Amino acid sequence: MTTFAGTSGGRLYRDADRAVLGGVCAGLATYLGFNLKVTRFLAVIAFLCAFPIALIAYLAAVLLIPSSSSRVYDAERYEEIRKEELREEIRRAKPTVSEVRRRYESMDERLARIEKYVTSSRYDLDEEFRRL
Predict the structure, then answer these.
(1) 56-73 burial, b if ≥16 CB within 10 A, otherwise e?
(2) 83-92 pLDDT, tens digit each
(3) What pTM was estimated for this model as a whole?
(4) 8 Å CB contact between 10 and 36
(5) Under DSSP, is residue 30 helix (H, G, I), strand (E, B) or coil?
(6) 22 Cβ partners below 8 Å, 6+ apart?
(7) Residues with Cβ < 8 Å from 5, sequence gap 6 or more?
(8) Total structural domains in the chain?
(9) What is the pLDDT of residues 9-55, one digit of tens each?
């Protein structure tokens, strides 16, 4: 495969997905069909050999080359996901009918025990001991 066959065939973009410092090297590697590590190595060599010129060129590339990302923001999908998360939170926050029924059954059992104790002779005996 030649270098030309590996080119993207489109415009030059900074690759935000594989970016380290702005995505210029990643964008150039994608556009020219080079290996990303080789492109970054050549950029480091350029910085070591001609620092001021390489720095100005890199900053100009960061400012002038538009950024591109394969992670496209889908507002509709985001809203669907957010609504589903809210529904899940509401579902967890609201007690279900069976949970409410169990709570009332438990309260009813405790009330029945209290009523049984208060109406028993044991309660009267305990009250007599408390008064002493």
Answers:
(1) eebeebeeebeebeeeee
(2) 888 888 877 7
(3) 0.46
(4) no
(5) helix
(6) 14, 58, 61, 62
(7) 33
(8) 2
(9) 578 888 877 788 888 888 888 888 888 899 899 999 989 999 889 98
